[in-house]
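--- STAGE predict ---
source: upstream dedup step, 1 unique chain passed
mode: sequence only
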Amino acid sequence: MKRYITFLLTLCALGLTTACEESYLDEVPLDRFSPENLLTNEAGYDAAVVSLYEGARQEHSIASNNFEYMTVGTDQSQWGRNDSRGNKDYSLLNSNLEATIIYWDWAFKQMIVRANLILDNIDDPGLKIGEAARANIKGQALFFRAYTYNFLANVYGGVPIVKERIVEPKFDFVRNARVEVLEFVAQDLEAASALLDMEVPDGRIPRAAAFHLLSEVYISLGMEKKDDSYFDKSIAAATKVISKEAGDYQLMTQRFGKASARPGDVFSDIFADGQINKSSGNKEVMWAWQFENFTPGGYSTATLANISIRYWGPEYDKIQSPNGTANLPSDSLGRGIGVNSPTNYIKYDIWKLDPKDIRNSVHNIRRTYYYNNAADKEYFGRPILTRRGADGQLYTIKSDGTQTKFVLDTLRQYYPYIRKIEGTPMGNNNLSGNSVKDFSRMRVAETYLLRAEAYFRKGDKAMAAADLNAVRARAKARLITAADVTEDFILDERSRELVVEEPRLRTLIRMGRLVDRVRKYNSVPSVPNGPSSGSTIQDFNRYWPIPQKVIDANTGAKFEQNAGYR
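--- STAGE serialize ---
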């Protein structure tokens, strides 16, 4: 287009055209995927909606295939290396850290831009779209805009609210207060909850998901405004889901699907490969990121799909048998690299309350590993046995009980394996660390936990205990009383139920608990005198910093940095 305009101007200057009217310079979009050509009917708008789902799925891996910043450096996991990366040293969390920039750009350059593009003209009566389809399209765009702003509010605090498409350069953005952002989120979700379909294809956003997220946002508003009426609104929103008024979703209490024919329990069935979605009989999961093998668009990128195994799985393939034969990446375990190394809080502490909790059963957490390399005929298929040496390190032992020379690295190679992450390898390649198992993002179990939190915050501990017990009863865990209900107990129950699924960083930030929980549960360095998240986190780390490039580019107005950052 630039060459074409230059050519016309040259002709005008040389007097080689009969006229040089402004109409010659009007840009006419020729690409069928330009908004003017694409967004004219239901198919075009649905293609734009699909781009929102594609963007939402990128949240999972956009920071890196090594760093899962929504959990690492929290109370649940530490960076699985002995260096200072992965928020193992919070003094490195600054306004130029790549992760702070990547998530900001994901939100403002992808998700919000795409949502606003859809919302900009969806109400035009001249569009060739049926009213039901129009409502559902608008509801999905509103949901994702709300989801993204809730993400921003629970990572950066207050951010600029951009309600419309920006079609020309703008350099005078001003941050809205966090409470204003949350109010905007609630408005979008309230509108979305009236527009979204209740029954949707796998992977699409149903009405129940909007009420689920709205329940969380109302809690945040209640805390921000110190107004208990928002907790009542949160309870009402969650009840829409739990009562099935918003759709046919429920807490699964009986075994189901093909997995039910194998050893396991109802909790393992919920996460069994091939039965994450409602079409497989799973009525608990309201929304899941979708991944598909050997399908265009089935992966986030050509090399990244569901990388939970890579993040959370230990490097068990680096373990050697007493004869010095290394393990192999296997079909069931994939290839982890041990970067989200669970803290002792996740590995042991949360299970002390009730060791019989099925969420801690062998079907859901693997604590015994086996030598799996057939080249070692003596140890192939045998469990890996261990013992603490005189130096305090963990060694493998031989069949006769004698200690070997092989030290087990409990930071990255040998620790409990959370089996939610197991799934079919991407491209059937065990070495990829990726799977194509769909990833649960919203479940009814969490809806109960949100309602329990809302009841707790308004002072009704009896009702909070009842909702917590609904989740605990399914797990065959000991039931609690109203006296047991505290904010810490709710956080612990969220860990027992939602570990791996939950973006723990955002939960802790929205509750105002990031700093003290990291100090309590993630302060032990992985090497003597080494860094740890808990020993380096400061009070101002309660929010992430605004990327410096954003502040520098905003030349038309002052863009405030979060307190404590430079």
